[in-house]
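Supplementary Methods, section 5.1.

A reviewer requested that the exact input to the structure prediction be made available. We therefore reproduce it here, unchanged from the version used in the analyses.
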Amino acid sequence: MYTSSPRKTARVQPASTRQTVTQKKTAAKPQNGLPENLKNGIEKLSGLSMDDVKVHRNSSKPSQLQAHAYAQGSDIHLAPGQDKHLPHEAWHVVQQKQGRVKANRQLKSNVPVNTDITLEKEADLMGAKAAAGGGTQHSEGLQHAKAGNTVQRMPEWLQALMALAWNNPGVSLSIAIGASGLLAYYYRQRSRKKQQNNQNRQQEKPDWETVDGVAKIMGIDPQFLLEQLENGGEEHTYMSDIYKKGFSTKNNKGKGLMPPSLFEGLPEDNPQAAVDLLFDRFNELPFKYIGEGGGPFRGFLEHQGDCAILRDMFVAAAHAFGTEGIQIGKGDDEVAMLVEPRPIHGREQHGNTGGELFWFFFNHHWATFNGTDYDLLFMSRGLATPFHRLDEGVEYRGVPYDTFSNGKALLHDKTCRRLKILVPEGAMGYVLPTDQVHAFIDDHL
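The structure derived from this sequence is encoded token-by-token as follows.
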């Protein structure tokens, strides 16, 4: 295997600049160089000087690359107890000096690596031959060539095979190398198949814009999904499963996750008419108001949520329709309020308080288009008049209540339970005139 610092490339020193020396050396061999017999064998076989090779024994660096040993340039790093790999790595230095090593992958740390099986097999054979003293002396002397900065590392499965040959005298090195060739073929074929599968997946782009496409992705019956989108039901596909299949609101409009009836016959040449008709159809859409959020596509799948989900469902549908000129805005009121009793989408009752009937909301959300407010919760063009909260948690004799801009006060449901005030099931509290709240509390304490 080989690594290099980013953007560095290994270059073989041109022949015109190489220095020729005799094999007889006058300089002392460095203590961290190759063993003399291995050095002589490598030089005989390659014709290249190994004077500059440094061996780093007991190195911690191989483990960082998930290897027992590796060669990088003229440096060989051996993990503790892995001297048996030295002949193999020494020949990798030769390959790099010859300029034959190029990166075929890159680690996350930007280290270029080569795991070419052909070079690995050659390093096994030639390293073993050099260690045995084989080879013919090059009569013209040794050439000095600079090695590249690429890391050559034997794949882990090949390291295991070589360890088998070293540790079991009955298994010859040639058998291990032959097995490595078969495994290399297998892994190459598997890699090619994986690459082909990835290409096929890229060519078959998931279809999130039709009900049939979504059903195919999810592996469900298209008719079941259609029924769910149009009418709801207790059994439904969950949005968490949709996201697991790769759906993204950034990359997909998700029209296949919406009721097709919303879009039938919408005029493509009249944005205002399209928005108005879409709004009318939303008012007929089965939906249960539960006062909890969760996102527009969850709203389409489960047919329940709050006013923010309803608004976002409407905006998503207008966007999915795709008519030029439809840019739906979002309106938000984050102040708690009382609203006069009236029908809302997804509830039979006309209010959610005891005492005087009002709707109490902590916030409210709607859509806007061309200067018109579309209130999906109240199913109206134009907004219901809100009476905002003025004071929260006002106390009288230790009993808290809120006051509102219409002169009303609200005792929250928790306070009602404490004072044993009867309110309808699911009510948010009890409403009465602010100037009567003290006497009312006195009567219930």
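Residues 1-29 have pLDDT under 50 and may be disordered. These observations are discussed further in the main text.
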